[in-house]
Amino acid sequence: MPWFISGALIVLGCFLVVFCFHRCFGFMVTVDGSSMCPTFQPKTILYVRAIAPGSVFNRGDIVILDDGNGKVVKRVVGLAGDRVRFVLGQVYINGHQLFEPYLPKGVATYPQEEGHEIRVGSNQYLVLGDNRKVSLDGRSYGPLDVRQIQGLVPYDGPAPRLGPLNFATAQPHVWR
To answer: What is the pTM of this model?
Structure first.
């Protein structure tokens, strides 16, 4: 077999291995922007778990999604059937204030329109960035279809201030 054919087969084999790993296990992304600060600083490298069609997400999960302008990192806040309101800087789900221990004290969440209620439909999720002052999120574009979610960040601990995540000290994701 000529050397250029065997070289092409090796390249093709490597491509298939990377493609299969990406589709079956996950992929890496670099945070670009400050919408998830202080949870994730810009340039933080995240491992993202690939998801299967029909996956279900929980309130508080951090996901990678396509918001129409590219891949972004956001936190799931509203689930299918929820009614979400923003009152005096707080998030209310179905009339109850949302407990958000992942946000620093004093973070206020204000809506795009005062008094506006967001209804999350079936097969939809409402996502917000943790840096509520600068995040372009579900308050402006509304609930997202589950098909826009491309992966789950399996991380439940505080991220380091600088550099990549240290997965040796990270707590495993708790499935609810």
So the answer is: 0.75
